[in-house]
Specification:
Elements: E1 2-5, H1 7-10, H2 20-29, E2 32-36, H3 39-54, H4 58-72, E3 76-78, H5 85-94, H6 99-114, E4 119-122, H7 126-134, E5 138-139
Length: 149
């Protein structure tokens, strides 16, 4: 299985939140983890916001950052460049999304077309999940949508 993580799902790997156990379980079963290159700044923004809001110890926070950066090097990362534009056009033609949500969805659609393995799209944003279904992606079914960004 190939697991595509948008930022709302990716953050659950590093912070205990509702459905973190689901992400951790799928992470362990996935042959590959895929995300868009935009997930890097989005994830860091979420991490720093969580740190500022809850006052994480600096050492604990540094370990979280190190773990994320180490994981990042192992991900298949879809680059945002002109090659992604046709997929971005495709998702905007049918779905009303924010810019980076469209980038995540277009990235997952591109990966689905390029890989022959099963792709699961993990996201905790109801609007983006709805759009992913319209694009024919298999989505991670979850009881709650816990949007961090």
């Amino acid at each position: 299985m190939v697991l595509y993580l948008d930022t709302s799902a990716l953050v659950k790997r590093y912070f205990e939140e509702e459905s973190s156990d689901i992400i951790l379980s799928l992470w362990g079963k996935a042959g590959h983890i895929v995300t868009s290159s935009v997930a890097y700044p989005e994830t860091l923004a979420c991490f720093y916001r969580k740190k500022n809001e809850s006052g994480f110890d600096d050492n604990v926070f540094a370990k979280i950052l190190d773990e994320f950066r180490e994981d990042w090097s192992s991900f298949i990362r879809v680059q945002v460049n002109d090659g992604l534009n046709p997929f971005i056009d495709q998702v905007f033609a049918c779905c009303h999304l924010r810019g980076f949500d469209a980038v995540h969805l277009a990235s997952a659609v591109l990966i689905r077309e390029k890989l022959t393995k099963d792709l699961v799209f993990a996201c905790y944003d109801s609007r983006l999940n709805k759009a992913a279904k319209l694009q024919g992606l298999e989505i991670l079914e979850s009881a709650g949508f816990d949007v961090c960004i």
